[in-house]
Amino acid sequence: MKRLGLGGLFFAWLYGVPFLLLVGLIRRVSRPYTPTHAEAQAFGATTDDLLMTGLLLNGVLPVIGLLLAGLAGEAMWRRHFAGAFGGVALIYVAVALVGNMAISGLIGHVPADQEPAPQITQCIPVSGGRGCPGG
Predict the structure, then answer these.
(1) How far is residue 1 from each of residues 4, 5, 6, 7, 93, measured CA to CA in Å?
(2) CA distance readout (Å), 10 to 71, 81, 121
(3) Is 12 in a helix, a strand, or coil?
(4) Closest by alpha carbon to 10, among 65, 71, 58, 56?
(5) Do residues 10 and 63 lie in contact, with contact meaning Cβ atoms separated by under 8 Å?
(6) Other C-beta atoms lying within 10 Å of the C-beta of residue 50
(7) pTM for the full predicted model
(8) Alpha-carbon distance 27 to 24, whole Å?
(9) How far apart (Å, rounded) are the C-alpha atoms in residues 97 and 24?
(10) Torsions phi, psi of 17, nearest 5?
(11) Alpha-carbon gap, residue 97 to 106, rounded angstroms
């Protein structure tokens, strides 16, 4: 049971963290199908949550796994989780490189509002008799 739990934790880090980060990065560069600003903010907030969760789990899961493997006396899993710190550093470097290549920040970006500008169909004359604004 110990090995199953430690293996699940290790593979959650090995496959789950890159999955969350890739989904977050794909959402970050994609154009959402949200016509209003509120929906675009919700899309951006979900993208931020995915990226922040992936970055947080990237640092936390190997530490927890190393502690649990040490407490359980599992030398094999202790070596796996100790080696995972190299992967943690590589993932952080990769995300930093992607962040430097991005036009705007990876976290905190709100997509542009795609709602069409309202069309003016009638004009109310401005006081002073100058006509309508804009002609």
Answers:
(1) 5, 6, 9, 10, 34
(2) 16, 7, 62
(3) helix
(4) 65
(5) no
(6) 20
(7) 0.73
(8) 5
(9) 15
(10) -65, -50
(11) 11
Task: For residue 131, give both structure tokens.
Answer: 């006509």
Segment 34-58, tens digit of pLDDT: 667 788 888 888 989 999 999 999 9
Give me 67's structure tokens: 């502690």
**Comparing C-alpha atoms, which of 82, 89, 114, 6 is closest to residue 97?**
89
What amino acid occupies position 97? L
Residue with tokens 């100058």: 130
Q: Return d(Cα 131, Cα 6) in angstroms, integer.
A: 76
Structure-token match 């640092």, residue found: 59
